[in-house]
Amino acid sequence: MTGGFRAVYGRDPEGVWAAPGRVNLIGEHTDYNDGFVMPLALPQTCRVEASRRDDGVLRLHSSAAAGGVTEVRLDGLSPQGATGDRGGWAAYPAGVVWALREAGLQVGGADLHFESSVPTGAGLSSSAALEVATAVALDDLYGLGLRATRVAELCRRAENDFVGVPCGIMDQMASACCTAGHALYLDTRDLTQRQVPFDLAAQGLRLLVVDTRVKHALGDGAYAERRAGCEAGAAALGVRTLREVPIEELPAALDRLDARLRPLVRHVVTENERVAAAIRLLDAGETHAIGPVLSAGHASLRDDFGVSCAELDLAVDSANAAGALGARMTGGGFGGSAIVLVRAEAADEVSKAVDHAFAAAGHRAPRIFEAVPGAGAHRVRAS
Ligand code: ADP
Ligand code: MG
Protein backbone atom coordinates (compact mmCIF):
# COMPACT_ATOMS: atom_id res chain seq x y z
CA MET A 1 0.00 0.00 0.00
CA THR A 2 2.98 2.31 -0.31
CA GLY A 3 4.92 3.68 -3.24
CA GLY A 4 2.70 6.71 -3.63
CA PHE A 5 5.35 9.00 -2.17
CA ARG A 6 7.74 8.43 -5.06
CA ALA A 7 4.98 9.07 -7.61
CA VAL A 8 4.08 12.37 -5.91
CA TYR A 9 7.47 13.74 -4.85
CA GLY A 10 9.86 12.02 -7.28
CA ARG A 11 12.14 10.54 -4.60
CA ASP A 12 12.02 7.81 -1.97
CA PRO A 13 10.74 8.53 1.55
CA GLU A 14 13.02 8.30 4.57
CA GLY A 15 10.50 6.08 6.31
CA VAL A 16 6.94 4.82 6.68
CA TRP A 17 4.79 5.17 9.81
CA ALA A 18 1.26 4.03 10.66
CA ALA A 19 -1.39 5.09 13.18
CA PRO A 20 -4.68 3.23 13.68
CA GLY A 21 -8.33 4.17 13.86
CA ARG A 22 -10.25 2.99 16.94
CA VAL A 23 -13.52 1.81 18.34
CA ASN A 24 -14.49 2.68 21.87
CA LEU A 25 -15.70 -0.34 23.85
CA ILE A 26 -17.40 1.70 26.57
CA GLY A 27 -17.16 5.23 28.03
CA GLU A 28 -18.84 7.53 25.49
CA HIS A 29 -18.99 11.32 25.79
CA THR A 30 -17.01 11.02 29.01
CA ASP A 31 -13.62 12.22 27.76
CA TYR A 32 -14.51 15.91 27.94
CA ASN A 33 -15.87 15.35 31.44
CA ASP A 34 -12.57 14.05 32.88
CA GLY A 35 -14.09 10.56 32.83
CA PHE A 36 -13.11 7.03 31.84
CA VAL A 37 -12.92 5.44 28.39
CA MET A 38 -11.87 2.08 26.99
CA PRO A 39 -10.95 2.21 23.29
CA LEU A 40 -9.11 -0.37 21.24
CA ALA A 41 -7.11 0.19 18.07
CA LEU A 42 -8.43 -1.14 14.77
CA PRO A 43 -6.26 -3.01 12.27
CA GLN A 44 -7.13 -0.21 9.82
CA THR A 45 -4.44 2.47 9.83
CA CYS A 46 -3.38 5.74 8.29
CA ARG A 47 0.08 5.19 6.79
CA VAL A 48 2.37 8.05 6.03
CA GLU A 49 5.54 8.03 3.93
CA ALA A 50 7.69 10.96 4.90
CA SER A 51 10.98 12.78 4.31
CA ARG A 52 12.53 15.92 5.76
CA ARG A 53 13.03 19.13 3.78
CA ASP A 54 15.54 21.84 4.67
CA ASP A 55 13.73 24.83 3.17
CA GLY A 56 11.02 25.42 5.80
CA VAL A 57 8.26 24.11 3.53
CA LEU A 58 5.62 21.50 4.38
CA ARG A 59 4.08 19.56 1.50
CA LEU A 60 1.03 17.34 2.07
CA HIS A 61 -0.63 14.81 -0.18
CA SER A 62 -3.32 12.18 0.45
CA SER A 63 -4.46 9.42 -1.87
CA ALA A 64 -7.97 10.03 -0.48
CA ALA A 65 -8.18 13.74 -1.30
CA ALA A 66 -8.60 15.50 -4.61
CA GLY A 67 -6.61 18.64 -5.28
CA GLY A 68 -3.02 17.43 -5.42
CA VAL A 69 -0.25 18.62 -3.16
CA THR A 70 -0.90 21.29 -0.51
CA GLU A 71 2.20 23.40 0.12
CA VAL A 72 2.62 25.70 3.13
CA ARG A 73 5.54 27.59 4.65
CA LEU A 74 6.14 26.63 8.29
CA ASP A 75 6.44 30.27 9.34
CA GLY A 76 3.05 30.95 7.75
CA LEU A 77 1.17 28.29 9.74
CA SER A 78 -1.54 29.80 11.89
CA PRO A 79 -4.96 28.75 13.14
CA GLN A 80 -6.39 31.96 11.72
CA GLY A 81 -6.12 30.42 8.29
CA ALA A 82 -2.98 32.10 7.02
CA THR A 83 -2.35 28.89 5.11
CA GLY A 84 -5.65 29.20 3.31
CA ASP A 85 -6.42 25.55 3.90
CA ARG A 86 -8.21 25.75 7.25
CA GLY A 87 -11.26 23.56 6.97
CA GLY A 88 -9.75 21.29 4.33
CA TRP A 89 -8.18 17.92 5.12
CA ALA A 90 -4.66 19.37 5.10
CA ALA A 91 -5.50 21.38 8.23
CA TYR A 92 -5.16 18.17 10.29
CA PRO A 93 -1.50 17.40 9.48
CA ALA A 94 -0.62 21.11 9.14
CA GLY A 95 -2.18 21.64 12.57
CA VAL A 96 0.03 18.93 14.04
CA VAL A 97 3.16 20.64 12.71
CA TRP A 98 1.84 23.92 14.11
CA ALA A 99 1.19 22.32 17.53
CA LEU A 100 4.65 20.73 17.65
CA ARG A 101 6.29 24.07 16.84
CA GLU A 102 4.04 25.93 19.31
CA ALA A 103 5.36 23.55 21.97
CA GLY A 104 8.86 24.72 21.15
CA LEU A 105 9.92 21.55 19.35
CA GLN A 106 12.46 21.87 16.54
CA VAL A 107 10.48 20.63 13.54
CA GLY A 108 11.58 21.60 10.06
CA GLY A 109 9.99 21.07 6.67
CA ALA A 110 8.75 17.75 5.32
CA ASP A 111 7.09 15.98 2.43
CA LEU A 112 4.25 13.71 3.57
CA HIS A 113 2.10 11.28 1.61
CA PHE A 114 -0.87 9.59 3.33
CA GLU A 115 -2.75 6.41 2.45
CA SER A 116 -5.44 5.40 4.94
CA SER A 117 -7.63 2.33 5.31
CA VAL A 118 -9.65 3.94 8.13
CA PRO A 119 -13.09 4.89 6.77
CA THR A 120 -13.51 8.66 7.12
CA GLY A 121 -16.39 10.19 9.00
CA ALA A 122 -17.53 6.75 10.23
CA GLY A 123 -16.89 7.43 13.91
CA LEU A 124 -13.71 5.35 13.72
CA SER A 125 -11.32 8.27 14.18
CA SER A 126 -9.70 8.68 10.80
CA SER A 127 -8.88 12.23 11.87
CA ALA A 128 -6.88 11.13 14.92
CA ALA A 129 -5.12 8.48 12.82
CA LEU A 130 -4.10 11.18 10.35
CA GLU A 131 -2.85 13.46 13.12
CA VAL A 132 -0.99 10.81 15.08
CA ALA A 133 0.65 9.37 11.95
CA THR A 134 1.93 12.86 11.18
CA ALA A 135 3.24 13.37 14.71
CA VAL A 136 5.08 10.04 15.03
CA ALA A 137 6.70 10.50 11.61
CA LEU A 138 7.99 13.98 12.51
CA ASP A 139 8.96 12.83 16.01
CA ASP A 140 11.17 10.15 14.47
CA LEU A 141 12.55 12.20 11.58
CA TYR A 142 13.47 15.15 13.80
CA GLY A 143 14.49 13.11 16.85
CA LEU A 144 12.01 14.85 19.17
CA GLY A 145 11.82 11.97 21.67
CA LEU A 146 8.09 12.39 22.37
CA ARG A 147 6.25 9.95 24.61
CA ALA A 148 3.01 8.53 23.20
CA THR A 149 0.91 10.48 25.69
CA ARG A 150 2.57 13.74 24.61
CA VAL A 151 1.95 12.87 20.96
CA ALA A 152 -1.74 12.49 21.78
CA GLU A 153 -1.89 15.79 23.66
CA LEU A 154 -0.25 17.71 20.82
CA CYS A 155 -2.52 16.09 18.22
CA ARG A 156 -5.58 16.98 20.27
CA ARG A 157 -4.32 20.57 20.43
CA ALA A 158 -4.03 20.54 16.63
CA GLU A 159 -7.62 19.33 16.20
CA ASN A 160 -9.04 21.70 18.85
CA ASP A 161 -7.13 24.88 18.12
CA PHE A 162 -6.02 24.60 14.49
CA VAL A 163 -8.74 22.57 12.77
CA GLY A 164 -11.35 23.95 15.17
CA VAL A 165 -13.02 20.69 16.29
CA PRO A 166 -13.69 20.67 20.07
CA CYS A 167 -12.93 16.95 20.56
CA GLY A 168 -11.78 15.30 23.80
CA ILE A 169 -8.51 13.38 24.18
CA MET A 170 -9.76 9.80 23.67
CA ASP A 171 -9.23 9.39 19.92
CA GLN A 172 -5.66 10.64 19.88
CA MET A 173 -4.77 8.61 23.01
CA ALA A 174 -6.23 5.47 21.43
CA SER A 175 -4.30 5.92 18.19
CA ALA A 176 -1.03 6.74 19.98
CA CYS A 177 -1.14 4.40 23.01
CA CYS A 178 -3.15 1.24 22.24
CA THR A 179 -1.35 -2.10 21.99
CA ALA A 180 -2.31 -5.22 20.04
CA GLY A 181 -4.56 -7.64 21.90
CA HIS A 182 -5.59 -5.04 24.48
CA ALA A 183 -8.17 -2.41 25.24
CA LEU A 184 -6.85 0.84 26.72
CA TYR A 185 -8.41 1.67 30.08
CA LEU A 186 -7.83 5.39 30.32
CA ASP A 187 -8.55 7.98 32.96
CA THR A 188 -8.90 11.14 30.89
CA ARG A 189 -8.35 13.40 33.93
CA ASP A 190 -4.66 12.61 34.32
CA LEU A 191 -4.12 10.24 31.36
CA THR A 192 -3.17 7.31 33.61
CA GLN A 193 -3.75 4.14 31.67
CA ARG A 194 -3.73 0.38 31.82
CA GLN A 195 -3.52 -2.09 28.96
CA VAL A 196 -6.35 -4.58 29.56
CA PRO A 197 -5.98 -7.98 27.82
CA PHE A 198 -8.82 -8.26 25.33
CA ASP A 199 -8.34 -11.57 23.56
CA LEU A 200 -11.82 -12.25 22.27
CA ALA A 201 -10.90 -15.22 20.09
CA ALA A 202 -9.55 -17.16 23.11
CA GLN A 203 -12.97 -16.78 24.74
CA GLY A 204 -14.94 -17.76 21.65
CA LEU A 205 -16.15 -14.19 21.10
CA ARG A 206 -16.03 -11.61 18.35
CA LEU A 207 -16.49 -7.88 18.22
CA LEU A 208 -18.19 -6.66 15.05
CA VAL A 209 -18.20 -3.10 13.78
CA VAL A 210 -21.28 -1.96 11.89
CA ASP A 211 -20.47 1.16 9.90
CA THR A 212 -23.88 2.62 9.08
CA ARG A 213 -22.30 4.82 6.36
CA VAL A 214 -24.46 7.74 7.39
CA LYS A 215 -23.31 10.94 9.06
CA HIS A 216 -26.14 13.26 10.01
CA ALA A 217 -25.35 16.92 9.60
CA LEU A 218 -26.68 18.00 12.98
CA GLY A 219 -23.84 16.10 14.69
CA ASP A 220 -21.34 18.94 14.99
CA GLY A 221 -23.67 21.47 16.58
CA ALA A 222 -25.18 18.83 18.82
CA TYR A 223 -21.75 17.81 20.10
CA ALA A 224 -20.94 21.37 21.15
CA GLU A 225 -24.38 21.65 22.75
CA ARG A 226 -23.94 18.44 24.77
CA ARG A 227 -20.52 19.63 25.90
CA ALA A 228 -21.91 22.94 27.03
CA GLY A 229 -24.73 21.10 28.84
CA CYS A 230 -22.23 18.96 30.73
CA GLU A 231 -20.27 22.06 31.76
CA ALA A 232 -23.46 23.76 32.90
CA GLY A 233 -24.40 20.64 34.89
CA ALA A 234 -21.02 20.58 36.62
CA ALA A 235 -21.29 24.29 37.42
CA ALA A 236 -24.79 23.86 38.84
CA LEU A 237 -23.52 21.06 41.09
CA GLY A 238 -20.46 23.02 42.19
CA VAL A 239 -17.90 20.59 40.79
CA ARG A 240 -15.17 21.21 38.25
CA THR A 241 -16.29 18.32 35.99
CA LEU A 242 -18.99 15.64 36.09
CA ARG A 243 -16.29 13.08 36.86
CA GLU A 244 -16.43 14.33 40.42
CA VAL A 245 -20.05 13.23 40.93
CA PRO A 246 -20.00 9.75 42.59
CA ILE A 247 -22.71 7.33 41.48
CA GLU A 248 -24.04 7.17 45.07
CA GLU A 249 -24.72 10.90 44.97
CA LEU A 250 -26.43 10.87 41.60
CA PRO A 251 -30.08 10.86 42.81
CA ALA A 252 -29.48 13.86 45.06
CA ALA A 253 -27.53 15.62 42.31
CA LEU A 254 -30.34 15.10 39.80
CA ASP A 255 -32.82 16.67 42.21
CA ARG A 256 -30.80 19.87 42.09
CA LEU A 257 -30.79 20.15 38.28
CA ASP A 258 -33.32 21.49 35.82
CA ALA A 259 -35.04 19.09 33.45
CA ARG A 260 -32.77 19.97 30.52
CA LEU A 261 -29.51 19.09 32.28
CA ARG A 262 -30.71 16.08 34.26
CA PRO A 263 -30.47 13.44 31.50
CA LEU A 264 -27.06 14.69 30.34
CA VAL A 265 -25.62 14.43 33.83
CA ARG A 266 -27.25 11.04 34.37
CA HIS A 267 -25.64 9.71 31.20
CA VAL A 268 -22.12 10.84 32.09
CA VAL A 269 -22.23 9.63 35.69
CA THR A 270 -23.76 6.24 34.86
CA GLU A 271 -21.44 5.83 31.86
CA ASN A 272 -18.38 6.19 34.10
CA GLU A 273 -19.93 3.51 36.29
CA ARG A 274 -20.41 1.26 33.24
CA VAL A 275 -16.72 1.57 32.42
CA ALA A 276 -15.96 0.50 35.99
CA ALA A 277 -18.35 -2.46 35.63
CA ALA A 278 -16.79 -3.49 32.33
CA ILE A 279 -13.28 -3.37 33.72
CA ARG A 280 -14.29 -5.53 36.70
CA LEU A 281 -15.75 -8.13 34.33
CA LEU A 282 -12.73 -8.08 32.00
CA ASP A 283 -10.35 -8.44 34.94
CA ALA A 284 -12.41 -11.42 36.14
CA GLY A 285 -12.15 -13.05 32.70
CA GLU A 286 -15.90 -12.67 32.13
CA THR A 287 -15.76 -10.85 28.83
CA HIS A 288 -19.08 -12.27 27.59
CA ALA A 289 -20.79 -10.59 30.54
CA ILE A 290 -20.00 -7.06 29.31
CA GLY A 291 -22.71 -7.45 26.65
CA PRO A 292 -25.54 -6.06 28.81
CA VAL A 293 -23.24 -3.21 29.91
CA LEU A 294 -22.74 -2.23 26.27
CA SER A 295 -26.48 -2.34 25.58
CA ALA A 296 -27.25 -0.28 28.69
CA GLY A 297 -24.69 2.26 27.46
CA HIS A 298 -26.50 2.47 24.16
CA ALA A 299 -29.86 3.04 25.83
CA SER A 300 -28.33 5.85 27.87
CA LEU A 301 -26.82 7.53 24.79
CA ARG A 302 -30.13 7.18 22.96
CA ASP A 303 -32.57 8.17 25.70
CA ASP A 304 -30.60 10.44 28.02
CA PHE A 305 -27.80 11.93 25.95
CA GLY A 306 -29.81 12.05 22.72
CA VAL A 307 -26.96 11.35 20.30
CA SER A 308 -28.11 8.17 18.56
CA CYS A 309 -30.09 7.99 15.32
CA ALA A 310 -32.42 5.58 13.52
CA GLU A 311 -29.62 3.70 11.76
CA LEU A 312 -27.56 3.19 14.94
CA ASP A 313 -30.64 2.09 16.91
CA LEU A 314 -31.51 -0.37 14.16
CA ALA A 315 -27.99 -1.81 14.12
CA VAL A 316 -28.09 -2.33 17.89
CA ASP A 317 -31.67 -3.63 18.09
CA SER A 318 -31.40 -6.00 15.13
CA ALA A 319 -28.08 -7.40 16.39
CA ASN A 320 -29.47 -7.97 19.88
CA ALA A 321 -32.66 -9.53 18.50
CA ALA A 322 -30.54 -11.95 16.47
CA GLY A 323 -28.66 -13.18 19.54
CA ALA A 324 -25.79 -10.76 20.08
CA LEU A 325 -24.51 -10.53 23.67
CA GLY A 326 -24.74 -6.74 23.54
CA ALA A 327 -24.30 -3.77 21.24
CA ARG A 328 -23.92 0.00 21.30
CA MET A 329 -23.13 2.99 19.15
CA THR A 330 -19.45 3.98 19.34
CA GLY A 331 -17.96 7.42 18.79
CA GLY A 332 -19.80 10.71 18.87
CA GLY A 333 -23.10 9.51 17.38
CA PHE A 334 -25.59 10.87 14.81
CA GLY A 335 -24.40 8.18 12.41
CA GLY A 336 -21.05 6.47 12.21
CA SER A 337 -20.59 3.03 13.68
CA ALA A 338 -21.96 0.59 16.24
CA ILE A 339 -20.12 -2.30 17.89
CA VAL A 340 -21.65 -5.71 18.51
CA LEU A 341 -20.31 -8.38 20.88
CA VAL A 342 -21.22 -11.89 19.69
CA ARG A 343 -20.32 -15.48 20.33
CA ALA A 344 -18.11 -16.56 17.41
CA GLU A 345 -20.62 -19.11 16.18
CA ALA A 346 -23.39 -16.50 16.00
CA ALA A 347 -21.35 -13.84 14.16
CA ASP A 348 -22.53 -14.66 10.63
CA GLU A 349 -26.16 -14.90 11.61
CA VAL A 350 -26.06 -11.61 13.49
CA SER A 351 -24.33 -9.87 10.54
CA LYS A 352 -26.97 -11.15 8.18
CA ALA A 353 -29.76 -10.04 10.47
CA VAL A 354 -28.36 -6.50 10.62
CA ASP A 355 -27.96 -6.44 6.82
CA HIS A 356 -31.56 -7.60 6.36
CA ALA A 357 -32.89 -5.08 8.84
CA PHE A 358 -31.15 -2.24 6.98
CA ALA A 359 -32.48 -3.43 3.63
CA ALA A 360 -36.01 -3.79 5.01
CA ALA A 361 -35.87 -0.25 6.41
CA GLY A 362 -34.67 1.12 3.09
CA HIS A 363 -31.26 2.16 4.48
CA ARG A 364 -28.04 1.93 2.51
CA ALA A 365 -26.25 -1.38 3.19
CA PRO A 366 -23.96 -1.10 6.23
CA ARG A 367 -20.30 -2.11 6.14
CA ILE A 368 -19.72 -4.85 8.73
CA PHE A 369 -16.27 -6.06 9.76
CA GLU A 370 -14.54 -7.63 12.73
CA ALA A 371 -12.50 -5.54 15.17
CA VAL A 372 -9.36 -7.34 16.30
CA PRO A 373 -7.43 -5.07 18.69
CA GLY A 374 -4.39 -3.85 16.77
CA ALA A 375 -1.22 -1.90 17.57
CA GLY A 376 -0.96 1.81 18.31
CA ALA A 377 1.12 4.18 16.20
CA HIS A 378 4.49 2.83 15.12
CA ARG A 379 7.20 2.99 12.49
CA VAL A 380 6.52 0.48 9.72
CA ARG A 381 9.93 0.51 8.08
CA ALA A 382 13.03 2.62 7.66
CA SER A 383 12.43 3.05 3.94
P1 ADP B 1 -13.65 10.49 11.92
O1 ADP B 1 -12.44 10.95 12.68
O2 ADP B 1 -14.65 9.82 12.79
O3 ADP B 1 -13.32 9.65 10.74
P2 ADP B 1 -13.88 13.30 11.44
O4 ADP B 1 -14.95 14.13 10.87
O5 ADP B 1 -13.35 13.61 12.78
O6 ADP B 1 -14.38 11.79 11.35
O7 ADP B 1 -12.61 13.32 10.46
C1 ADP B 1 -12.77 13.07 9.09
C2 ADP B 1 -11.93 14.05 8.30
O8 ADP B 1 -10.52 13.77 8.48
C3 ADP B 1 -12.13 13.95 6.80
O9 ADP B 1 -13.22 14.75 6.40
C4 ADP B 1 -10.82 14.51 6.27
O10 ADP B 1 -10.80 15.92 6.30
C5 ADP B 1 -9.82 14.02 7.31
N1 ADP B 1 -9.16 12.78 6.89
C6 ADP B 1 -9.12 11.61 7.57
N2 ADP B 1 -8.36 10.69 6.92
C7 ADP B 1 -7.90 11.29 5.81
C8 ADP B 1 -7.04 10.89 4.72
N3 ADP B 1 -6.54 9.65 4.64
N4 ADP B 1 -6.79 11.79 3.75
C9 ADP B 1 -7.30 13.04 3.81
N5 ADP B 1 -8.08 13.46 4.80
C10 ADP B 1 -8.40 12.62 5.79
MG1 MG C 1 -12.42 12.44 14.20
Descriptive notes:
This protein is α+β, with helices and mostly antiparallel strands and 383 residues long. It has two domains: 205 residues, Ribosomal Protein S5, domain 2; 170 residues, GHMP kinase, C-terminal domain (Alpha-Beta Plaits). Helices cover 38% and strands 23% of the residues. The strands form three sheets. A six-stranded mixed sheet has the order 5-4-6-3-1-13. β7 and β8 form a beta hairpin. It binds adenosine-5'-diphosphate and magnesium ion (MG).
What tags apply to this protein structure?
383 residues; alpha+beta; Ribosomal Protein S5, domain 2; Alpha-Beta Plaits; 2 domains; 6-stranded mixed beta sheet; 4-stranded antiparallel beta sheet; 11 helices; 38% helix; binds adenosine-5'-diphosphate; binds magnesium ion
Q: What is the overall pLDDT average? A: 95
Structural class estimated from helices and strands = alpha+beta
Rg of Cα set: 21 Å
Number of E-type strands: 13
CATH topology of the largest domain: Ribosomal Protein S5, domain 2
Whole-number tally of structural domains? 2
Order of helices and strands: HEEEEEHEHHHEEEHHHHHEEHEE
CATH architecture of the largest domain: 2-Layer Sandwich
Q: Give the N-to-C terminal Cα separation.
A: 13 Å
Helix content: 25-40%
Query: Mind summarizing the main beta sheet?
Result: 6 strands, mixed
Strand line-up in the sheet with most strands: 5-4-6-3-1-13
User: What is the count of helical runs?
Assistant: 11
Portion in strands: 15-25%
**In CATH, what is the class of the largest domain?**
Alpha Beta
Low-confidence stretches: 82-86
Bound molecules: adenosine-5'-diphosphate, magnesium ion
Q: Globular, elongated, flat, extended or rod-shaped: what is the shape?
A: globular
